[in-house]
Amino acid sequence: MEKTWRWFGKNDNITLDMLRQIGVEGIVTALHHISNGEIWRSEEIKNLKDYIESFGLRWSVVESLPVSESIKFGGPDRDKLIEKYISSLENLGKEGIKTVCYNFMPVIDWIRTDLDRKLEDGTSILYFDKIRFAYFDIHILERSGAENDYTPEELVKVNILHRSITSEEIDELIDTIIVKTQGFINGNIKEGDNAPVAIFKTLLKKYEGIDKNALRNNLKYFLGKIMPVCNQYGINMCVHPDDPPFQMLGLPRIVTDKNDIEWILKSVDDNHNGLTFCAGSLSAGIHNDVPKMAEAFCDRVHFVHLRSTEVLPNGDFFEADHMHGRGHLIELVKIFEKCRKDLPMRVDHGKLMLGDGDKGYNPGYSFHGRMYALAQLDGVMNALKALG
User: pTM score, two decimals?
Assistant: First the structure.
């Protein structure tokens, strides 16, 4: 597999020269300065592509060309937004950039409640605490009917937390869930926005009446519209699994398990309608057998995210070491190396370690933690190659 790295552009504290030195071959990036829903112009694409290539690297994957919320919930302007999306794909295709990772998660992307959970060895990881998330849902968002999504035992724990949580902890929870894990990804809410909870509630309201079938049909509509340009330029669209892969905040999620993925791939049965196989997202669902899913969908996987999680009996989950956890990454490397040797892969959500905590990196995208994970998986790939 091609060793790639998610890089956040020329303002990223991690430089392309650093990445070349640690064995990265391809870059996963986007035009982060262009607003969601606007056209990616050819000159902007070429400028960034040329810059990447000047370091002896290649722009392997776009992650991501965001799908506007109005396309997801089927707003009155969705056709105009899809036309702009098609123009961006056409411009990418003309520059020879053929792999686009995107997601169809309503309102919110990946969800964690703690960005700096300390481990005994001094490193720290991303963590999802179900009770703290339930507190956010019930007492901060004050979402109607939220209590029905949790067990009586969980509600007791939420009420205990309600009596002890501090205002500082509440602010940190809001910042973690709504702002820090979202602003650098989809642009719905960003650092410095006033009243992020109010903005978030407004976004949630747009999905009233949108159930799983409606969201599925909106994705099918979107894919049907863009497939002609994908076929013209050989562009592979790779939908990213929902993270975590289950329903949250009363929103439908449609990329959570084997049945969901089968539905998407069959709904527009074209090889350019494919999957980003994110082992971390899928392994956070106790219902998913990740290696079996890799075998089932290998021929429609066009991009791989190699990370792993552990799920606790109480519903909490956390980012596991890349050699352990429910992602079974060694087994995945075996499967994908056998099936699709040309696949771009990137490691994801590395630990905070060796002083990375104060470098201002985006959550989950430290330098040393990802470098360590890349070295581990590079070793796995080379060992498997040597063994034949």
Answer: 0.95
